[in-house]
Amino acid sequence: MKKPTQKQQSAIHYAIVPKDLAGHLFEVTLTVALPASDGQVLALPAWIPGSYMIREFSRNIVQISAESEGQAVALMKLDKHTWRAAPVVGALTVRYEVYAWDLSVRAAHLDQTHGFFNGTSVFLRVLGQEAMAHQVDIQRPADPAAAAWRVATSLPELGARRYGFGSYVASDYDDLIDHPVEMGDFALATFKAHGVPHDIVISGRVPNLNMARLQADLKVMCETQIEFFEPKSKKAPMERYVFLTLAVGDGYGGLEHRASTALICARADLPTAATPKKLEATDGYLKFLGLCSHEYFHTWNVKRIKPAAFAPYDLQAETYTPLLWLFEGFTSYYDDLLLVRSGLLDEAAYLKLQAKTIGSVLRGSGRTKQSVADSSFDAWGKYYRQDENAPNAIVSYYTKGSLVALMFDLTIRAKTDGNKSLDDVMAALWQRYGRDFYAVAARGVTEAEVEALFDEVSGLKLKPLFNRYVRGTDDLPLAKLYAPFGIKLVDQRKDAKPALDASTGRDGGDCKLTQVHEGGAAHRAGLSAGDVLVAIDGLRVSGNPVNLDALLGRYRVGDTVVVHAFRRDELLTFNVKLQGDRTPAISLEAAAGAKKLKRPSA
């Protein structure tokens, strides 16, 4: 991204300082050089792109005031996230405090150990002037605890030095909020992927971190993805990239941005000298690499190739699209597949991960009630607001979306004798809708255009697949699709094992039902999510899951047991007829000489 000229740099100016580390407060000063003559309207986004739920970030504004030329200016609140300033003649200055205590990748967090923020949480939008240049002065906190802090962000520096406090610049408001900021005493390393600098920033205590391993592995992963979209030029779509990572005791998540990603992970998942060279499907480090791969793939798929509904974003209200199965599901398909192509994941471990995904989709009856297109559209109210009934009511556009990608890939490969694949569809999406997204008038892709492109690139008529598996709820015929590639799908569930068919969790020393699966033994007997199991046939059920398995293991499928459970503060009795364990146990077995899922032209 080219820096704006000096003339462009004075329009919108922010100064942000970690004002109170212990109180978790950022102070922001916004200066508008030429406010609207009838009263400038300001608004804080209601959601952050990539996380499809209304989060109402404005609730974290603790206090706000305005002035112009030393005189107080009245602010009228128009709705929960919008203010109008009284008309002024000169520049308008707005000061406000933001409470930052959300330890996630979506909002803002501040304490004595570090500071982090997304622009959507802290930068009021100046309505009518979003297209102008935005300058940000990131100021060092006065607290002595922050004496060694540095700044990590993909925002271009204006007056600041790299990793330093000072002024940064964005070409417009959308650009401003697409570069999260981390500040603290973090670990830092840099590598180049096809000539583009990539920073790895690790905040949080990580003893014996093997940064050299992380650099080497991320380098090959990034270069593989750059080559995937630009096999000839090997040109990345950004001038610099930053992996912003917060390591905690237990956590997992990521959020994509145009030139960076914000990640949170368990510190145990980061590599040490003891991390094995060959990664198994259960290894935490492989989980972290998969997260990095997923968010990095989004650099192309959703940050530049976008649904038409996201070009531009409406940041004040829900923005609906039926295409998240493509943008999240396909990204979930390629994140692990490209680790295989990078040489970081062997095929046996890859098949185990794929089998786990298949099992998770088949586990819930919600897959028979909601299509991935509907799941995409309903993300705002269902997927991002899941409750205890989620497995019975919804399907994930991430997991089933990744299997839809697999279906299209195997179908295209099989029917074109390996001459075409899903890779070619992704390449066409990139060339037509993504490559020049920020260089020319931005335009996203529509549902009809996606479907037409699949037919055009593959040379096949794929509408029946869209009808049955994208807009419909049929189970994917994966066993049949795998067969031509020498892979056998086997469900190894042991129906003879008696089960309640419910998920459980600890509640202190007790066992609580967290989800009750539709049609299972617990459901049929009348048990509900939230019930605390007390005893089975007079024997205590503890919070240890081994205890429950041991108690049920004394019976056969079809036996009836008496279950005592607390619902709220009432002791209830249920007669439960045990059923066979319906949990899928999928395995994928590759025959010797099985065809590989590589680019056909390779």
Structural description of this entry:
The protein has 602 residues and is an alpha+beta fold. 26% of the residues lie in helices and 27% in strands. The chain contains 15 helices and 30 strands. Strand 1 (12-20) and strand 2 form a beta hairpin. Mean pLDDT is 95; it is low at 1-9.
Q: What descriptive keywords fit this protein?
A:
single chain, 602 residues, alpha+beta, seven-stranded mixed β-sheet, six-stranded antiparallel β-sheet, globular
Topology of this protein?
Elements: E1 12-20, E2 25-32, E3 41-43, E4 61-68, E5 71-73, E6 75-79, E7 82-85, E8 92-99, E9 108-110, E10 114-117, H1 119-122, E11 125-126, E12 134-138, E13 150-153, E14 166-170, H2 173-176, E15 181-184, E16 187-193, E17 196-203, H3 211-229, E18 241-248, E19 252-256, E20 260-266, H4 284-297, H5 324-342, H6 347-363, H7 372-377, H8 390-393, H9 399-415, H10 422-434, H11 447-458, H12 463-470, H13 478-482, E21 487-491, E22 498-499, E23 502-507, E24 510-516, H14 521-525, E25 532-536, E26 539-540, H15 545-552, E27 560-567, E28 570-577, E29 579-580, E30 586-590
Parallel strand pairs: 1-12, 17-18, 18-20
Antiparallel strand pairs: 1-2, 2-8, 3-7, 3-11, 4-5, 4-8, 6-7, 9-10, 10-15, 12-14, 13-15, 16-17, 19-20, 21-30, 22-29, 23-24, 24-25, 25-26, 25-27, 27-28
Helix pairs in contact: 3-4, 3-5, 4-5, 5-9, 6-9, 10-11
